[in-house]
Amino acid sequence: MAMQKRVKALHQLQHLLSTSQFRPVEAALTAGAIPLLVQCPSFGSPDEQLLEAAWCLKNVAVGKPRETKALLPALPSVIAHLGEKSSLPVAEQCAWALGNVAGEGELRNVLPSQGALPPLARMMLPNKGSTVRTAASALSNLIKVLEPFLINGFHHRLYYEINELY
């Protein structure tokens, strides 16, 4: 029963964050929802809860820089859900969240050091449905405004990660 209530509350928050004209991200931060969202994507949670939490995190990540920075503690868990242990819908929402985080210039360089490249590269493999587009978009955001000397290293690293998969 408690799990159903949690999933329903996450769905309502996800709906507010994704459909409201004036998304209440700041209100969610003030109310303390972000630390709870950071805890939700733990392994062993029901898939429906993971999906709703990842969707919420994705929508928070598209906010203002301060709002996006609030997601830093969630990055390891979000990155972990890009792997084979998660369902494709959960992995796709997590990739989308990382793409949104990468869109925030200051946080872009944090993602490679957190290990986001290998699982995003793996999502580019065939038979992954729309997750291929989402992963490509996230990777594109990662390299958008890197310094020229970093781009060569990043491309080399990405090339290496993709080739390691074959």
TrEMBL record:
The protein, known as: Uncharacterized protein
Stored PANTHER family: IMPORTIN ALPHA
Record's keyword terms, sorted: Protein transport, Repeat, Transport
GO aspect biological process, one term: protein transport
Family, as annotated: Belongs to the importin alpha family.
Alphabetical list of SUPFAM superfamilies matching this protein: ARM repeat
Source organism per UniProt: Rubroshorea leprosula
Domain of life: Eukaryota
Keyword Transferase: no
